[in-house]
Amino acid sequence: MSTQAALHLQDVTYSINKKRILTDISLGFGAGLFHGVLGPNGAGKTTLLKIITGQLQAAGEVCWQGRPLSDYAPQELARHVAVVNQINDSVFSLTAKQVVTMGLLPHKNLLSRYTRDDRTQVLKALDDVGLADKAEQHFSALSGGEQQRCLIARALVQGAPLLVLDEPVNHLDVYYQHQILHLLHSLCQQQGKTVVVSLHDLNLAAAYCDNLVLMKDGLVAASGASSGVLESTLLSDIFRVPCTVHHSATQTARIEFNPPFAEFQKASTQVKHDS
Ligand SMILES: Nc1ncnc2c1ncn2[C@@H]1O[C@H](COP(=O)(O)OP(=O)(O)OP(=O)(O)O)[C@@H](O)[C@H]1O
What we know:
The chain is of the alpha/beta class.
């Protein structure tokens, strides 16, 4: 674990109704790096992201820039940490531009007015996520992918040094998957932001993430530089699908899955016989 980490977890354990969800997680997330959190369904990725953003309180310690997260007042925390949760059912009766403007709230007080600079920032963020032409459209009238990009734009204008996004590209078409991950990666490189995302697409993780955390059953199975974590035997074991990782000196790793179709066939035949 890096002692230089901007975000630091020590022995983090989390249970719900006596059911253990995360066990003894100790991790460091360095500044200026793009971190991916990977793992099968139910591994604990969302729970981990909610803990590192202060949405859930766990046993153990979570420190951001050397201070426990619990020491930050809510508005102060919002200036430090921007969160994009998985899309939920909340329907905003606001336009895309108004939703993005909400990202400026942590920097305002009751008497603050929005400046020309604020408006420029909001329009730039909408443009950055490809929504410049939808600025006046109601959030509820945006497609799922557009809503997701709108919430990412809101996180961008928040200007926080730590951005945490739960499955930020799962509603996006291929173009925007790459556009958003490229944008987040450049925020790390050019502005020194710490970005943490959960992802299901291992090839996207290989292409964009500097570091990876691989989770299973509430435990960290591996963490570190992406090239080290993306290893055939480990991934085959964790995801229960045989795979081959092709490493190359000049290109990012490419993961090829070889699903055990015969096994799936046997299982579905078994279901038919049993019913
Ligand atoms: N409120 C809750 N009550 C009971 N169990 C919960 C609750 N929230 C999460 N869990 C359980 O905790 C485990 C981890 O859930 P979590 O959402 O963190 O997984 P995940 O890795 O994000 O999964 P996915 O890839 O499916 O989004 C799961 O087994 C889930 O059922």
